[in-house]
Design a protein that fits this description.
The protein starts with a strand and ends with a helix. The longest helix is centred in the last third of the chain and has 14 residues. It is mostly beta strands. It contains 3 helices and 30 strands.
Length: about 230
Amino acid sequence: MTFVGGRARISGTVLPGAVVLGPTVVGERSLIDSFATLGYPRRSKLLELKDGTLEELDAVSAGCHIGSWCLIRRGCVIYEDVRLMDGVELGHNVLIRSGSLVGTNTKIGTGSQLDGEVHVGDGCSIQSNVYLPHLTRVGSNVFIGPGASVMNDRYPPSDRLEGVEIGDGAVIGSGALIVAGVRIGRGAVVAAGAVVTRDVPEEAVVMGVPARIVGSRSEYDAKRLGILRSGRR
């Protein structure tokens, strides 16, 4: 059953089975696929619900903002107070919680989570099953490989949460783990499977457990370009 609340402003297309709550805005030429949910209320509001009907959810939701030319695939859940800028594309079953911001033309793969207030810049490519917790900040033109994870608590469970910052143009390899409070410098590269426990300087390449500097971004780019030109895998 499709549900679009009376306060929503829809300029794009909402397919059958989607749920749009509160004063959610959907921009021109955006597509909301079946069984996606927009404007889902935060936890504090859910705990105060009496009946849990869609009408009640709609009444308490503050809505979210979806820009123009966005693609929200089946199974995505976007909480209230989330803002997706123009051209954002989500795979299936992406979860984005309240307070998050996703920049223009960023793509987020299937099963990934922005689990709290997370800010992501423009032109990023976040692959499938990536986990970004509360307070994570990702710059523009960042690549994050499949299954990479970020922490925000060094000694869980605790109340001392520290966000991770990933600078513009950084590359985070598949399965990498970045520990709470770490800063990844502009243009840095984190190798697949690395565990990053300390700050990474700009343009550095790190790998290993724990991650250590093994080269520079210029060396990495030269090797990558050589492989691409040669056609080798």
